[in-house]
Specification:
Length: 565
């Protein structure tokens, strides 16, 4: 899923002091929360080794909100941009936010059914008012009360900050929020009968923040969030080395939909190379490996003793975004012709088979196959195979001089190490037509996330994990007014149709509108070109349970359901 901001670097940090929980990972003294250097990470990892990587021969009595399972060590290459929910809209940040923040509504473990989290119940009290009643006595981990005013502050703040790298575009249908008493929140919507709003509350725009800690009009630094314990989810962070090592322990007063935490705590270890991630899960240095393993890594791990590879429902998509202002072409008509020629020149099957060994499959719409309302307009309009004649005709009819010089940017560390192979294959495919010359460049995620919203890239790679499993979530955030892509696309007819599908209660009628939107986008606009869709894949050591429950259609990776012998 999503996008993008970084916190400040910390050049100096104290040496961490570590202790070992019986049966759990080491806890690093709170003085190291600001640790951001490689030296700190190295000392911390030595401590992990000295403490047996969080493993234990004994059990726990299940106090402090845990069920007695030892601590879990999770490895990932997915980078975090910020802990502040108003400033991030990417999978790496949401991965951590899911562990530490509560929501009004969230998805029940093991599936994609919505259930109340901080709320007792939520429902429409009129066609434009969605009302939630909070549980009594909720608090943040710092002891501050979590009330209806906290919820109002959270959503007002998202709209006030409207960070270009944040998720506020998900609130396009929100008119206002009221808190008439301590446990009642009323959301007034612009359009009636919004069929997606309950899911929006469970999305990256929904983490509830502490109004006594977070500023109303700007982002809060990660270290302040950790130091102030301004969270209320199933875990708190006890040590924070950004994109190096993060330590979590269960928050005993969490009463939400995730239920009791099934382990004593968790450690998140970041990797810059998926090969090292694979080696550590193979050796038993970590318990779980998640985003992102290469297809070759997955094949190797499937043959590794002591490791189980688990696949969950698909939903991730990969696509190319065109900046409508800076892409090549002298007129809007020429720019559209170039995008159509691009779409006609891509061999998705080759990307699927040669780069990803079938772990990703061709995608011919903005909405992935399997969701209600999904269609395949790119296959119908541009073909399943590359069509050089069609691409040539698009350019000739618009008077575009060939070859078109296209600057194409991709990210080598956020969407997995196979991105290099993927985009070199795309460059080769485009240039083989004789219609394009491609200047292919890569940028590390921290810089990429900032530059792509600053009109720096004419065409660029993005990927998407949905905020909730509904076709609308692959359309509204990308193509409605003030969409998060920031690529200067907006269209009144597309926005009208998006509003219509969101408020249509009849499933068949809604599916027809969704298909109309997908066709319109593919035929007349093409601000993005879909490439591939993929499954969720993770690996775990023998004795680890719960991975199947968290790799589900909610697309939220939850530590709380994981346990190990």
């Amino acid at each position: 899923m999503r996008s993008f901001r970084t916190g400040p670097a910390h050049l100096g940090a104290p040496t961490p002091v570590t202790t070992c929980h019986p049966g759990g990972p080491p806890v690093i003294a709170r003085t190291t929360r600001s640790a951001g250097t490689a030296a700190v990470a190295a000392v911390t990892l030595l401590a992990l080794t000295a403490c047996g990587s969080g493993r234990t021969d004994g059990g726990s009595d299940g106090t402090d909100g845990s069920s007695g399972s030892a601590g879990i060590i999770i490895g990932t290459t997915d980078k975090l941009t910020t802990l502040d929910p108003a400033g991030s809209y990417d999978n790496g940040s949401y991965h951590v936010q899911t562990q530490i923040f509560s929501f009004l509504m969230s998805f029940e473990p093991g599936g994609a059914e919505l259930g109340p989290d901080a709320a007792e119940e939520c429902d429409f009290t009129s066609d434009v008012v969605y009302t939630c009643t909070l549980k009594e006595g909720l608090t943040f981990a710092n002891g501050n009360p979590l009330t209806a005013e906290s919820v109002k502050f959270t959503f007002d703040r998202q709209l006030e900050i409207a960070d270009p790298n944040g998720p506020s575009s998900l609130l396009a249908n929100l008119e206002s929020v009221a808190a008439p008493d301590e446990t009642t929140v009323e959301f007034t919507l612009k359009s009636p009968n919004d069929q997606t709003f309950a899911q929006v509350l469970a999305s990256p725009v929904g983490p509830i923040v502490d109004q006594a800690t977070f500023p109303a009009d700007e982002l809060l630094d990660d270290d302040a969030i950790v130091d102030e314990m301004a969270t209320s989810g199933p875990y708190t962070i006890t040590s924070y080395g950004k994109n190096e090592l993060v330590e979590f322990e269960p928050y005993a007063d969490y009463t939400g939909v995730q239920g009791d935490v099934k382990n004593e705590g968790a450690t998140l270890k970041y990797y810059t190379d998926s090969n090292n991630l694979r080696l550590d899960i193979a050796s038993g240095a970590i318990d779980v490996a998640t985003r992102s393993l290469t297809p070759t890594d997955i094949e190797a791990l499937e043959e590794t003793d002591g490791v189980n590879v688990v696949t969950g429902p698909g939903g991730e998509i990969r696509y190319v975004v065109f900046n409508l202002n800076t892409m090549p072409g002298e007129t809007p008509e020429q720019k559209l012709a170039i995008r159509k020629a691009f779409a006609s020149s891509i061999d998705r099957a080759e990307l699927s088979e040669q780069v990803y060994k079938g772990t990703y499959t061709p995608l011919y719409s903005n909405v992935p196959e399997g969701l209600p309302g999904a269609a395949t307009p790119f296959e119908e309009i541009y073909g399943a195979d590359p069509d050089v004649d069609a691409a040539t005709a698009f350019l000739a009819d618009a008077g575009v001089t060939t070859p078109v010089a296209l600057n194409l940017q991709y990210n080598p560390d956020h969407y997995g190490p196979s991105s290099d192979q993927e985009y070199n294959a795309i460059k080769r495919q485009l240039e083989a037509t004789g219609l394009f010359t491609v200047d292919l460049q890569s940028t590390e995620w921290v810089t990429y996330a900032e530059e792509r919203t600053a009109d720096a890239y004419p065409a660029y790679q993005l990927g998407w994990f949905p905020d909730f499993p509904d076709a609308d979530n692959y359309l509204t955030p990308f193509f409605d007014t003030d969409n998060f892509l920031g690529n200067h696309f907006e269209d009144a007819e597309v926005s009208r149709l998006l509003d219509a599908e969101r408020t249509e209660a009849d499933a068949d009628a809604r599916a027809e509108i969704l298909e109309e939107i997908q066709t319109l986008l593919a035929e007349e606009h093409l601000s993005t070109v879909p490439l591939l869709q993929g499954a969720q894949v993770a690996a775990a050591r023998d004795g680890v349970t719960g991975l199947e429950d968290t790799l589900n259609a909610s697309f939220q990776f939850r530590y709380s359901v994981l346990s190990k012998d």
